Amino acid sequence: MDPLDPLGLGEELSTEERLLQEAVRGWVRDRALPRLPGLYERGEFPPEWARELGALGLLGMQLEGYGLPGAGAVAHGLACLELEAGDSGLRSFVSVQGSLAMYAIRHYGSEEQRARWLGPMAAGEAIGCFALTEPDAGSDPAAMRTRAVRDAGGWRLDGAKMWITNGSRADVAVVWARADDGVRGFLVPADAPGLTTADMTRKLSFRASITSELVLDGVRLPDEAVLPGASGMRAPLSCLTEARYGIVWGTVGAARACLEAALAYAGSRVQFGRPIAGFQLTQAKLADMAAAVATSGLLALRLARLKDAGRLRPEQVSLGKLNNARSALAVARAARTVLGANGLTLEYPVMRHLANLETVLTYEGTHEIHALVVGRALTGLSAFD
Ligand code: TGC
Ligand code: FAD
Fold first, then answer.
1. CA 295, CA 330: separation in Å to the nearest integer?
2. Whose CA is nearest to atom 49 of ligand 2?
3. 308-335 pLDDT tens trace
């Protein structure tokens, strides 16, 4: 049995998809994995990785037009899987750039906004962030307090956004704010007077990823800064569906990396005179991990087929995120026990994945929110109203 692919899902892939997967896996192995423990310890994300990920064609890879690759759903998913097998922060960088910021500009932006931003963002020359969450509006973003007021000179934005990936690194922030006619999206350049950022440095999860607070204090913007196609909560929520799809795949990668580490460790660690892999309790853990990797991979592949057919519904993405984030976390926890005390260190990737997966369970809609979205789809009754 191939521990990286227990059900042989690789047989479902085209040659192009396999080549892309190999390329991303190779970049993660050669460029990222040797540096990740140190970066995680110091709380850093190397700025030069943006252009490297751009050169690999991964930023906005699933988007079409404006010179973007227009990759299929499986290829997009495999890239997320391989990146997150390295670190969830890597996949997040690509998700925020491509599935949130670029997706918002591609789908809701004007021709001028698309022409200005999409090329440099695909190349990793310009960084974007997606600012929806606020100190008092997390799971319920519709309760946002950031206000956009229109006057003769354009728009004035006031408010605060929190937990924003790449907030301080971004050349352009996609900021969601409440206007008189409902929620609107704005492209706020980093040098806009009145915009300040501060990094959130005391995280114990997602340490190799930049997370920031944004304060908008009387930020003046011209009419051209509005995303003309975005009106109401449907627009930001549709971006979330796109990024959540990437998480469904990415979590398979994190789980696979933990299984791989547990297998290698169990095969070489000797206690009571034999490798711990020979103990029945260890084998039960490994078998459960392999089953989780295989079934979450199958689920991701099914969602990809639905997405390519244009039939993927948001509640199916919620079901995928619900299952695969929980499943990956369970794999990481079990793998951690197999590694004993060594599993607690940065010498092995497992504790890093375990800590990251606590974020993955929480962001892009918490576990509970996705359960309620699926519950609403199953029963026809909304727990939110
Ligand atoms: P409601 O306000 O009633 O509906 C608004 C409109 O939006 C539509 N809609 C969606 N459309 C596309 N995709 C989705 N997932 C959608 N969910 C809702 C809905 O049909 C309606 O359309 P219309 O035309 O009738 O106006 O909202 P709701 O009751 O459907 O949703 C409530 C709830 C709780 C599910 C929603 O607010 C929610 O998803 N909350 C979670 C917030 C969240 O996920 N935040 C994430 C912030 S970004 C982030 O975490 C980035 S992390 C970095 C990384 O990704 O790596
Ligand atoms: P809350 O909404 O306060 O939830 C707290 C608890 O209450 C959770 O368990 C939740 O499930 C539960 N709860 C809430 N409502 C209900 C309910 N109706 N029924 C049952 N239980 C409920 N946001 C962005 O906009 N952009 C980003 O780039 C971004 N990046 C992030 C990066 C990191 C590292 C992290 C940790 C977060 C990031 N977020 C980002 C924010 C993230 O989306 C929010 O943390 C998430 O939506 C949850 O909001 P909250 O943390 O305020 O929790």
1. 13
2. 138
3. 999 999 999 999 999 999 999 999 999 9
The pLDDT assigned to 152 comes to 87
Task: Label residue 68 by pLDDT band (50, 70, 90).
Answer: very high
Closest ligand relative to 366 C-alpha: 2
Of the candidates 242, 347, 364, 368, the residue annotated as catalytic is 364
Q: pLDDT tens across 116-142, in order?
A: 999 999 999 999 999 999 999 999 999
SS3 content of the chain, % helix, strand, coil (to 5): 55, 15, 30
* Nearest atom (ligand 2) to Cα of 132: 25
Distance CA 17, CA 345 (A): 34
Query: Is residue 233 lining ligand 1, measured as CB closer than 6 Å?
Result: yes
Burial pattern 103-121, b for ≥16 Cβ within 10 A else e, equals bbbbbbbbeebbebbbebb
Residue nearest to atom 38 of ligand 2 (CA): 163
User: How many other C-beta atoms lie within 10 A of the C-beta of residue 14?
Assistant: 11
Instruction: Name residue 179's beta-bridge partners.
Output: 182
Residue bearing tokens 């206690």: 271
Q: How far is the CA of 364 from the centre of ligand 1 (A)?
A: 9
Mean pLDDT of the chain: 98
Note the pTM of the prediction, 2 decimals.
0.98
From the alpha carbon of 244, which atom of ligand 1 is closest?
Answer: 55
Residue of the CA atom closest to atom 23 of ligand 2: 133
pLDDT class of 233 with cuts at 50, 70, 90: very high
19 contacts: CB under 8 Å, gap ≥ 6: none
pLDDT of residue 309: 98
Pocket test for ligand 1, best of 161, 203, 233 (most atoms within 8 A of CB): 233
Q: Is 41 a catalytic residue?
A: no
* Ligand 1 center from residue 318 Cα (angstroms): 10
The predicted pLDDT at position 385 comes to 86
Cβ contact 158:227 at 8 Å: no
- pLDDT for the residue numbered 153: 87
Pairwise CA distance, residues 322 & 369, whole Å: 9
Q: What is the three-class DSSP state of 293?
A: helix
Cβ atoms of 319 and 241 closer than 8 Å = no
